[in-house]
Design goal:
heterodimer; A: 334 residues; mainly alpha; 2 domains; 0% strand; globular; B: 198 residues; Alpha-Beta Plaits; 3-stranded antiparallel β-sheet; 7 helices; elongated
Chain lengths: 334, 198
């Protein structure tokens, strides 16, 4: 007798949750280390060997800090907002396939036909967490941050979807497993290099990371949408931000970098080796993010909008039309 | 604006710079485990020195207290008696207190001292949780008997320029009446700083 389906899914979900939370903790440490090195500092190195226990110490700190709610805040929404962010950030991992077995079984919690749409839907809902947090805080800096986030997310999400549709046309599917399998011979980064570049830029904006971190913008808005948050609730936003980073890194790997396919033809692709390929690719993308943050200064807000609407959006649209035309005229290449 | 936006070369140069900096040597000194080599004659915590036979150098003249620009030093002198000789002079410091919170570590007390009794050592870790703990009295300032004479003003750990030490030794004189050193070190330091000596 085989185990009931709900039990399998539950076990898978618990495993993925554990892995994802660990990945969050260490991506944070990774970022602090890399940025430290780039700024000629050693980075965290006090707690555990090479600072490896730093995430645990941070977690303990977050848990024991006071959880303040401002008097002017809308208490219910103020308390719910971090959870909206976190749940949406975590939900995306439910359908991300980390590798595939030889018989084609995906290593993911669930396999949704419209996988990519599911991820985009979740990240869009995730914006509500940030918007509502800023709105319900009842003070001006978070409000400005949340207004910015809404505008920024809407304008960049559009270009992001556009850049991804090119990949979907080439793969002929919205299921993430099929998209990766379609890249068995040629990664989509080659035919969709424009789409890839747009995806990287919009992904940075989508996750509110430097140089597009106008939602937080410490130098202008104190802390942006999470100015009033403290303790564990602030920690939840923090987790959500890093999980979103990991999500877009995984998506970039799946959509453009061939997922669990090996970079050199002939080497084994699926299974545990595939998992390693996947992690290397996603890790490289994560590193690129951190690298950008250590290098580039923040955009001015009007330039950000200008760039999103007047440059990225038209280029993404052109790329989409071009891909569609090419696939329509020479369908055998798709 | 467009010109800046599409200046990809500048972006790439920035990225290569940050990337290469990752592998550079970090100048960080990991303080509690590794301590910095201080500059010669670092101005840190004070110390009251002794002569070789264990007598206190301080003669309770209060010149340091007068020289102190921060009014951090309080000296109360008392007469030596034949039965209880603390210092070779007539008087000694019955009470010697320095408020290290007021002190600006300028070293003027050191220069004012005619017997080289008060000296600034390179010790700098004085942190405490209580305000009162920063008022250092003789019990903490005076070198313990078993520790010898204390930090020689010109031969401190981490060294001072060799020539300055030589100058100081050359001008060392011995008070014939008492047999103790009577270095006019303040004078030597001043001339040294003006670049007049040796």
């Amino acid at each position: 007798m085989s185990a009931p389906i709900w039990l399998i899914v539950l076990v898978k979900a618990i495993i993925v949750l554990g892995v994802v939370i660990t990945a969050f903790a260490y991506s944070m440490l990774f970022e602090r280390k890399i940025i430290g090195w780039m700024q000629l500092r050693p980075g965290p190195n006090r707690i555990g060997p090479w600072g490896l226990l730093q995430p645990a110490a941070d977690a303990v700190k977050m848990i024991f800090k006071e959880d303040l709610t401002p008097e002017t805040a809308d208490p219910l929404i103020y308390r719910i907002a971090p959870f909206i962010s976190l749940v949406c950030a975590m939900g995306a991992f439910a359908i991300i396939p980390f590798s595939a077995s030889a018989d084609g079984t995906l290593w993911s919690v669930g396999n949704v036909n419209a996988g990519i749409l599911f991820v985009f839907a979740l990240t869009s809902v995730g914006v509500y967490g940030i918007s509502l947090a800023g709105w319900s805080s009842g003070s001006k800096f978070p409000l400005l941050g949340s207004v910015r986030s809404t505008a920024q997310m809407i304008s960049y999400e559009l270009s992001m979807s556009m850049s991804v549709i090119g990949v979907l046309i080439l793969a002929g599917s919205t299921a993430l497993g099929d998209i990766v399998n379609a890249q068995y011979r040629l990664w989509f980064i080659v035919p969709q290099i424009v789409g890839f570049i747009i995806y990287i830029i919009t992904a940075v904006a989508e996750t509110n990371r430097a140089p597009f971190d106008l939602v937080e913008a410490e130098t202008e808005l104190v802390g942006g949408f999470h100015t009033e948050y403290s303790g564990l609730r602030f920690g939840l936003f923090f987790i959500a931000e890093y999980l979103n980073m990991i999500t877009v890194s995984c998506l970039a790997t799946l959509l453009f970098l061939g997922g669990w396919n090996s970079p050199i033809p002939g080497l084994p692709s699926g299974g545990f080796v595939g998992l390693i390929w996947f992690l290397i690719k996603a890790g490289a993308f994560l590193f690129f993010y951190i690298w950008l943050r250590a290098t580039l200064p923040r955009f001015r807000y009007d330039r950000l909008m200008d760039f999103g609407w007047k440059v990225l959006f038209p280029v993404a649209t052109l790329n989409l039309i071009l891909t569609a035309v090419v696939v329509a005229v020479w369908p055998q290449h798709a | 604006m467009r010109k800046n936006l599409f200046n990809v070369g500048a972006l790439l140069r920035g990225l290569t710079t940050t990337f290469s900096y990752q592998f550079k040597k970090k100048p960080t000194i990991e303080y509690p485990t590794v301590k910095k080599q201080h500059a010669p004659r670092f101005h840190g915590l004070h110390e009251l020195r002794r002569y070789g036979d264990g007598k206190e150098r301080c003669i309770g003249c209060e010149l340091c207290a007068i020289a102190c620009p921060a009014n951090a030093i309080t000296v109360i002198g008392a007469e030596n008696t034949p039965l209880d000789r603390r210092s070779p002079g007539e008087r000694y410091a019955a009470s010697y207190e320095i408020d290290e919170l007021r002190c600006i570590f300028c070293g003027l007390c050191e220069e004012a001292c005619p017997t080289d009794a008060i000296v600034l050592t390179p010790r700098f870790e004085m942190a405490d949780y209580r305000r009162g703990a920063f008022v250092y009295a003789k019990d903490r300032l005076l070198v313990p008997l078993e520790a010898g004479v204390g930090t020689p003003p010109d031969e401190r750990p981490n060294g001072i320029p060799a020539d300055l030490g030589a100058v100081a030794r050359e001008k060392d004189t011995v008070d014939i009446a008492t047999g103790y050193d009577a270095t006019n070190r303040g004078h030597i330091l001043k001339t040294q700083r003006r670049g007049l000596a040796g």
